[in-house]
Each structure stands twice: as structure tokens, then as C-alpha cells.
Specification:
Helices cover 2% and strands 19% of the residues. It is mainly beta.
Length: 188
């Protein structure tokens, strides 16, 4: 099933099947896909606005130039996605407990989003931007963060010895997140 340039408003995964479908230049507005099955689906230049995709199945799902705005996306395992052309952006999204493990998502933008307990282990997030994001208990291990901008984000703990952070940008107020493993006290 191929669908192009259509707006879907307030649909849910019981009334609407996405499994194996291809969507191009579509908008999904206020849709509930909680625990939905996106297996083998393809989304090209689509937007999801104010949608709930929490715990959705993303096996071999393709996201190419997809934007998520004000979406609830808890517990998503993005590392099961089709990696060919994988590109997305997140604005004002709740992504807690999600995983980007071992993905190459260079130049990905996260803005005003909650990323609690998100797994970025072995992810290539180089040239990315995390603008005003809460990264409380997010995991960074063997992560490529070169030229990534963290200046306005907070609550992160990143071990510079276990991650590639060459030319990454951090704010002085959050520098403690780079030194946490040393158990030192930083005062103003």
C-alpha cells in the first residue's frame, strides 16, 4: 500500500494499519499508535504532530527525513529500524526509555525533548544538536559525539574517556556531567 500527501487526523492503530505500508509527504496529527505495529513500514518526508507512538514495534521500519513534534514516544527501540537513509528530527518530544543503540544518526536534531534513560551506546551522533534536552540517566558508552552540540542540554553524564567528544560543545554550567566519574566537587 502506497499513500502520498495525505493528512491523517486522530486515527488510532485499531482503525488504521501501518504495517508494511509506504507513506510519502504525509502528516499524522493527534494520532494514537501506542503499541502499534510499524513493521516493514516506510515513512518518507512525513511529519508526526502530537502523536502517541509509545511502545510501537519498529522492526525494519524506515524513517527518511521524518519530523516528530510534541510526540510521546516512550520505549521505542529505534535500533530495530531499517538503517538505510535513516534520518529524523525531534521537537518537544518525550523519548524516555527509548534506544538508539549502535545507530548512525549523524546530524540528528533533538530540541526541547525529554530523553530520560535513553540508550545512546555505540551510536554515531556526530554533528548532532541536542537543544534544551533533559538527558537524565541517558547512557553514553563508546558513543561518537564529535561536533555534537550539548550547550543548552542538561542532566547528562558523559565519560570523555569512553566516548569520542572531539570538538563537541558543552556549556560551562553543565561541565560537571563530564567529570562525574571522578567524584569531585565543582563550585562557583
Amino acid at each position: 500500500m502506497y499513500i502520498q500527501e495525505k493528512i491523517f487526523k486522530k486515527v488510532n492503530n485499531q482503525a488504521f494499519q501501518t504495517k508494511g505500508a509506504e507513506f510519502e509527504n504525509c502528516v499524522f496529527d493527534s494520532c494514537s499508535f501506542n503499541q502499534g505495529d510499524f513493521t516493514d513500514s516506510k515513512f518518507i518526508s512525513c511529519s508526526f504532530v502530537d502523536c502517541d507512538l509509545s511502545s510501537a514495534i519498529l522492526a525494519r521500519t524506515s524513517f527518511q527525513e521524518v519530523k516528530f513534534e510534541q510526540c510521546k514516544m516512550m520505549g521505542l527501540i529505534f535500533d530495530r529500524c531499517d538503517t538505510f537513509g535513516l534520518s529524523f528530527a525531534f521537537e518537544s518530544c518525550q523519548l524516555s526509555y527509548s534506544s538508539f543503540f549502535n545507530l548512525k544518526i549523524k546530524q540528528t536534531h533533538f530540541s526541547d525533548s525529554i530523553l530520560h534513560y535513553v540508550d545512546f551506546s555505540q551510536t554515531d551522533l556526530s554533528d548532532g544538536v541536542l537543544n534544551n534536552c533533559d538527558l537524565d540517566r541517558a547512557t553514553f558508552g563508546q558513543t561518537i559525539l564529535e561536533k555534537t552540540d550539548f550547550r543548552t542540554s542538561f542532566n547528562y553524564i558523559i565519560d570523555p574517556e569512553n566516548n569520542k567528544i572531539n570538538k563537541a560543545k558543552f556549556s560551562l554550567s553543565s561541565i560537571a556531567g563530564l567529570l562525574a566519574k571522578y567524584n569531585i566537587k565543582i563550585e562557583r
